[in-house]
């Protein structure tokens, strides 16, 4: 069954931007590119919780070079659609970035504050190199300068959910990425 058709009937979703199949095809391409770039180089993939978790676990299974996996928690949103520039980061105990070639796997780069803060924190912890990979990029909203090394899709300035992305911690389990109807958050 076409996943776009079967889920687009959810009234909270205005339209489907990327189907399960389109996402899978793009994640495969990203994995292949990353595998080529890290051939012969030890790789540590770090997923950014919670939004980046779904993308991260799909991505690592498309990477063919040996890697280690960890997660970091970052939050800049408090149950809403307006970003706050202060980013809280927590690293699990026992993890050390020292000496690692890190690839950050994140759901979306919006203003850029989250990815920048995570990257700087890992470098401060002694990482050898830190590259970034986001399944989505909202270039229109960037507030800070940061290069993203691998991008899945550029999207317009709309609030999107699914494939790990949430609104008030809901919709993360949708297998596609869709635009959330404004009626859900503009009351
Ligand atoms: P930034 O710090 O503004 O780049 O925001 C990045 C974080 O905000 C992401 O990790 C997401 O958790 C969240 N975010 C930004 N845009 C969206 C969206 O359209 N839908 C859901 N979450 C979003
Ligand atoms: Mg996030």
Tags for this model:
single chain; 187 residues; alpha/beta; Rossmann fold; 6-stranded mixed beta sheet; 3-stranded antiparallel beta sheet; 9 strands; 25% helix; binds inosinic acid; binds magnesium ion
Descriptive account of the structure:
It is a single chain. This protein has helices at residues 3-7, 20-37, 53-60, 113-124, 182-185, and strands at 13-18, 43-49, 67-75, 88-91, 101-109, 129-137, 150-154, 160-161, 177-180. By secondary structure, it is of the alpha/beta class. The chain has one domain (21-155): Rossmann fold. A six-stranded mixed sheet has the order 4-3-2-5-6-7, with helices on both faces. Strands 1-9-8 form a three-stranded antiparallel sheet. Helix 3 (53-60) links the parallel strand 2 (43-49) and strand 3. The chain is globular, with a radius of gyration of 16 Å. The structure holds inosinic acid and magnesium ion. The site of inosinic acid has 18 residues, from strand 5, helix 4 and strand 8.
């Amino acid at each position: 069954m076409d996943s776009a058709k079967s889920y687009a009937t959810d009234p909270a979703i205005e339209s489907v931007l990327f189907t399960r199949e389109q996402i899978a095809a793009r994640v495969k391409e990203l994995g292949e590119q990353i595998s080529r770039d890290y051939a012969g180089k030890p790789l540590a993939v770090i997923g950014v919780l919670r939004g980046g978790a779904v993308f991260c676990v799909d991505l690592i299974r498309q990477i063919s070079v040996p890697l280690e996996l960890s997660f970091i928690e970052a939050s800049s949103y408090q149950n809403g659609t307006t970003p706050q520039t202060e980013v809280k980061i927590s690293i699990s105990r026992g993890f050390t970035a020292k000496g690692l070639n890190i690839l950050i796997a994140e759901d979306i780069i919006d203003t850029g504050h989250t990815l920048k803060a995570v990257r700087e924190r890992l470098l401060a912890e002694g990482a050898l190199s830190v590259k970034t990979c986001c399944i989505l990029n909202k270039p229109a909203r960037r507030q800070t300068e940061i290069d993203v090394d691998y991008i899945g899709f550029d999207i317009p300035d709309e609030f999107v959910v699914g494939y790990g992305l949430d609104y008030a911690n809901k919709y993360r389990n949708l297998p596609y990425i869709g635009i959330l109807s404004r009626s859900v958050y503009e009351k």
